[in-house]
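Researcher: For the record, we're logging two predictions in this thread. I'll number them. Prediction 1 follows.
Model: Prediction 1, sequence and structure:
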Amino acid sequence: QVQLVESGGGLVQPGGSLRLSCVASGLTFSSYFMSWYRQAPGKERELVASINAEGVPTNYADSVKGRFTISRDNAKNTLYLQMNSLKPEDTAVYYCRARYFTKDVWGKGTPLTVSS
C-alpha cells in the first residue's frame, strides 16, 4: 500500500523553528520527485518547496525563501522540511506529495499553528 505519513506539526511561537517529516512506504522513494504543500484556513493549497530525486531542491515559494529548507534521506524513505523564523502566516496544514510520471500520491497532512 502506497502511503505518505507526515509528522512534526504542532504549536510554535513566532520566531521559532520546527522540522516536519514525511515517511513514504509502498513506493520506490528514491525515484520520486517530492514536494511540500500547505493550505491555510480559507485559502487554496500552495506549493512550499520541491526537491528532485537526487536531493537537489528545485524551488521554494517566495514567502519561505531563506527560512525553510527542504531535504530528503533516500535511505530512510523520508522527506523533511526545516522551518525557521516562523511567522503567524505560516499557519496551515502541511502536506507532502510524491510524483513519478503518472503516479501522484499525497499524504493526509500535519497541522502547524504559529501563535504566541
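Researcher: Logged. Prediction 2.
Model: Prediction 2, sequence and structure:
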Amino acid sequence: VQLQASGGGLAQAGRSLRLSCAVSGITFDDYAMSWIRQAPGKEREVVSCMSKSDGSIYYADSVKGRFTISSDSNTENAVFLQMNSLKPEDTAVYYCSAAGRYWGQGTQVTVSS
C-alpha cells in the first residue's frame, strides 16, 4: 500500500495550494480518506475527511469555507485538498490517510504572513 502526498510548499497568506495524494495497493473507494496536519508543538488535527460509502464530508472549523477535499477514482486513485485563503496558522506537515490505517509520508505547507 502506498500513499504519496505532494503539492506542499511555501505560499503567502491569502494564496492557494493544492495537495494531492496518490493511492495504490488498496481498493480506493472502500476507504474514508482524510487529510491530517501537524504543526510544531501542536496536536495532530484532522483537517478534512471524505467517505465514498455514504458521501459524507467533514471539515475542521479552522478550514471551513477555505479548504475543499475531492477525489478521483476514475482516472487515478487520488485525493486532493484545495487550500484557498491560506493563513500562517495553516503551516504544518500535511498527511493523507486511508481510514487512519495507511498513511502517506507528509508534505510541508508553510504560509508566510
